[in-house]
Amino acid sequence: MTLQFEILATDGAARRGRLHTAHGTVETPVFMPVGTVGSVKAMRPEDLKAVGAQIILGNTYHLFLRPGHEAVQQLGGLHRFMNWEGPILTDSGGFQVFSLKELRTMSEEGVTFKSPLDGAMHTLTPENSTQIQHALDATITMAFDECTPFPCTEAQAAESMRLSMRWAKRSREAFVAREGYGQFGIQQGSLFPQLRKESTEKLTDIGFEGYAIGGLAVGESSEELHHAIPMAAELLPTDKPRYLMGVGYPSDLIRAVVAGVDMFDCVLPTRNARNGLAFTSEGTVKLRNAVHRLADIPLDPACACPTCTQYSRAYLHHLHKEDEILSHMLLTYHNLQYYQDIMRTLRAAIAAGTLRQTAAKLLETCR
Fold it and tell me: Sign of dihedral through CA atoms 95, 101, 103, 108?
């Protein structure tokens, strides 16, 4: 048996679900903190558990380059290596290779690229990307795909999508089914509904344990993004988890949950924390601003995390101005707590049938 997904409640297009895996159960909708190189920046695994994180993301490309998937496998797999017992989803490396631009060449076989670490040449294919994820012991393996650039013509999007679908078939053939593990296919097609539909049909013909929406949040406007998400989501199978890759701001997540998406990841809460920006129930707070220098008040009075209950905005402002590591730690903790609290609130609202009202209230202050 591969991983199993059950839907417990619905409210409009939104779903309250439960994903059963070899490494634990995941309540959905869920936000996955990004631990690209086997670490969520500035957070210990026990802190991730404390904020309510259920599943985290790792990255094939980065872990392949350093320390190497063979080393991770020899040391007991990524869960043991990073001391995280819960589920791990690994990105296939397709997006990272896409972002290399001048350092890569692409063919039907895969992508050859120059390592930015030491200049060595490497090749990622659907087969070895899947094998690397297997060596890492990823709970959820992602199919290898090309992230379609934006903007692009419909013809360019079609060519890119169809290449990704051929790669998806090869990724599936290389996947080793195990109890509690699974593989997700990635829907492509840019902003073109007919291409998204064709992509979904090809993926479901192959058959995966879950399906992701790829190729968004790569330069399109907010209006285009919010039009594309429900369009893409409603095409995907209703009995499988739906994962929106790389999105996004809290307001994006709320709207996507309303549209029927179950899983999310994004670097924004951790990256913005390191830049001194906090997401709060009163809106975003830029701690570098001088207005916080003598602010003897909590970062977010509605938040029960240690950052908000034990430290003032004035102190956090001071830490950020001094570029203290503790600033990164405290703000990352809070931002991830904020994202997890939103997911908890949305799960409860779907179960209670009050999602429309809850989402509207959250969006009053969410960026």
Answer: positive
